[in-house]
Amino acid sequence: MDKISNLPNSILCDILSYLPTKQAVSTSSLSRRWRHVWKDVQVLDIREEPFCSSGDPSLDSFVNAILAQRNADLYPIKKFRLTCKSFSVDPISTSLNAVIGPCLQELYLSLKVNVMFRMNLPKAIFTCTSLTSLVLKHDISLNYGPEFPDVYLPSLKNLELQIDEVDKKFFSGCPVLENLKLILQHMSSVCPEGYVYIPTIQMPQTLKSLTFEDYSTLCHEINHRVIDTPSLEYLHLKIVTSVFSELLMSVSHFPNMVEAHVDIQESQSRVDINGAFFEHVCWVPMLLQALRETELLTLKRYTTMCLFGAPAFKFPEFHYLLYLELDFQFFNTNFLLNFLHSCHVLEALVIYNWEEPYLLSMDYNGPTPPTMVPSCVSSHLKNFEFIEYQDAADEREFIAYLLQGGLVLETVTIQLKSNLDLETKDNIVKGLSAIPRGSTICQLNFFD
């Protein structure tokens, strides 16, 4: 007998728990020693890939056989993962009822069916007191109409929902939730019978990490998103909104914020030079104010445009910001300098220039920046990167400004716009390399 087979069952089960369940079961054919080991494994990972073509009933049969043969009384399931693109609702619902128990800690369901049908989860899932992690993806419905089931998940700390809708009552039953990933998919124009629209989503106050992607605002005219989470440390916010949406956003101050990524997108690609079409996201400056304690901040291009066109907007003071990444639709030196004057200890700055020649330019409404060099540029900024540099006059002026005023700069990296010809690129490199530098250790790098 080999050395591995001499190990006790507990260790062998721990090894098998890292394998997909079908592979774990196949070890029963290795020898008599391995014949029944898999039956004690308390982690099941069932995937559709090893089975036949879509719609083959063998997956249902396999799930039922596994649950029937394993030693459930002595070794109850602690982690259950099911991933499949086609399934029969009734057998899977029966299997889930068999899985849910007082020892279940982690549940992961990624199920896809015909778009006209959604699977309602067994209500026992909402009162599984031992559950610490729950992931629900794709064609799983949390639509129970007005009679939403009671939710009591006192141990749940990690929750990931990638679904069409979520009832606000769901979050109220998660008193210790710390990590939430909520992706609201685009709801079909044909709403299921009994559908109840919930316009307000309020995030649990206990959150430390929030990833929120919202595509549902494309369907409804009025929505309200409330992020009143004073303990939040990580935020990834992506909202795709219609220009006609009346989306509202309410946020608290985030004193513990460490990392924040904000990506506000508009579903229709158009530019109003008067800035009128930014009015439906007038809350973006308020959101930036709430993020003033963060150490890392990235703003995608439409988000930057919302700040760019905001009337009488003053940047908040960022006393802890070390890394700033900005996407620009319209590069503007005054906007950037005003931002830098509010970033007192910034060490790294990255700029993506998405400017396209066919788009009309947009005027910056903000004030003229102070004449002195921002304190972060002269005493803290070490690394600067400019991506898609095309050598427009204001771009070249800003590069010169940083090279001369950046007294502690270590690296400046310029990625040239790809459609520039070789002669133009060569002239850009020569021109920027000739600019005097305030830092004696500054290295200037160029890439295509």
Automatic annotation (TrEMBL):
Transmembrane segments: none annotated. It holds the Pfam family FBD. Residues 1-47 form the F-box domain. SUPFAM superfamilies: F-box domain, RNI-like. This is FBD-associated F-box protein. It comes from Arachis hypogaea (Peanut).
